[in-house]
Amino acid sequence: MGVEIDQAFVQEPQHRPNLSIAKAQEIPLIDLSPITTTNPSPSAIEALVKQIGSACKEWGFFQVTNHGVPLSLRKNLDEASKKFFSQSLEEKKKVSRDETSPSGYYDTEHTKNVRDWKEVFDFLAKEPTIVPLTPHEFDDAIIHWTNKSPNYPPNFRGTLEKYIEEMEKLGYKLLELIAMSLGLEAKRFEEFFEDQTSFVRLNHYPPCPYPHLALGVGRHKDGGPLTILAQDDVGGLQVKLKHKTDQEQWVTVEPTPNAYIINVGDIMQVWSNDAYESVEHRVMVNSGKERFSIPYFMFPAHDTEVKPLEELTNENNPPKYRPYKWGKFFVHRTDSNFRKQNEENIQIHHFKIA
Ligand SMILES: O=C(O)CCC(=O)C(=O)O
Ligand SMILES: [Fe+2]
Question: pTM of the prediction?
Answer without folding.
Answer: 0.95
